[in-house]
Amino acid sequence: MTHYLQTAVTGVTALALAALTLFVQATWGDAPQPPPVRVEDAPDAVRERLRLVGAVPVLRLSGTPREMGFQHGAALKPQIHFLYREYHEAMVKRVVGQEELLLWAKATEPFIPEALKEEMRGLAEGSGLPYEEILVVNTAIDRFQTIACSTVVAAGDATKDGTVYFGRNLDFPGRNILQRMSVVIVWSPEGGPQLAAVTWPGLVGVLSGMNSEGVAGATMLVHKGRARRPGLPYLLMYRQALSTARTKDDVYAAISKAKRTSSNNFMVVDATGASEVIEFDPEAAVRRPAAHGCVCSTNFFASDDLRDLCMPMGKERYETLADFLERERGRIDLDLVKTALADVATPFYLNIQAMVFLPAAREIHLAAGQELPAAKQPYVRLTREVLFGK
């Protein structure tokens, strides 16, 4: 066997082993029961910032970046430590490698806006974890690339009542932990829109979120594409983009100008119902607009400019959603969107969150809890008042 062939076989074997490890840990995770979020357990100084809506914890943060980070760390300290120990150390570090994660975090740190680094310093102070570990946790997803998500949007005359609907499945190896630890964090900075993210304790970035202007977005990993490079980690890039956006065009402007690290699709919708998928890799960012109020996306590039650069993952889910949009045009409502999400939920152990954004109403309907798949569980309605106040 030649050196090159041996190297290739070794690489494939390592990849297969990593995939098997992920599968086993995601499906049969043996982590203990996570500590529940209880308002009465929060320190006095931050207790009024925390509330439960059904079983969904909602944490509102305000003030300077450092103050918001401290409030986050103090209010969810037990949960942050649990996730760090039982998920990040037990799974992510084992799959990617501790040294590799640290090197990546340090390489991306210069690209992170100072305000977000200040927030992470405050989070470290409030939680008691070192800043370096908070940084690693918030940049690791660019290296731990295992997301397999789906999004679908219907607006205008495609819907039954003219409402803007944005459905989203988040499919991710949760080690039988993450589905039980979802929280909604609402940032209310000094000036600028508020931003609500469906997330987990300890993260300052955004995978799925909506701001008080009604601009909502959600990411889907695209596998392969052009080579990854140090830049602004994509969770933090989405946080930065949604924090100031007033239209979907603002989100595209922020993403297209950023030093991007890897390949992603980002579905973005604003309160008017205007929507598009921003398909991007480190070198290019392409807009794929909605057609007649409808658009869907999964884990591959569908635009002519980028489609040849990636692995065609998620095509069956994409085709199912595209068929749904065509078949149900003019009849789409909230219940039908939820049904569509259930139809494309990946194997039950990966579908850890399902949600429907209503950007015009500034509402989120969220399914996340003990049972999987999330898309087949009851949804909790998070109203505009809950998310953004009166």
Describe this protein with a few key phrases.
disordered N terminus; 390 residues; single chain; globular; nine-stranded mixed sheet; alpha+beta; six-stranded antiparallel sheet; Penicillin V Acylase, Chain A; 15 strands
Multimerization status? single chain
* Residues in β-strands, percent: 15-25%
Low-confidence spans: 1-17
CATH level-4 homologous superfamily of the domain at 150-388: Penicillin V Acylase, Chain A
The H-and-E topology, N to C, reads as HEEHHHHHEEEEEEHHEEEEHHEEEH
Structural class: alpha+beta
**Rg to the nearest angstrom?**
20 Å
What's the CATH class label of the domain at 150-388?
A: Alpha Beta
Average of pLDDT: 91
* Main beta sheet strand tally, sense and closure: 9 strands, mixed
What's the N-to-C terminus distance?
Answer: 69 Å
Could you explain the architecture of this structure?
- The chain has 390 residues and is an alpha+beta fold.
- It contains eleven helices and 15 strands.
- A hairpin with a 5-residue loop joins β9 and β10.
- It starts with a helix and ends with a helix.
- The relative contact order is 0.14.
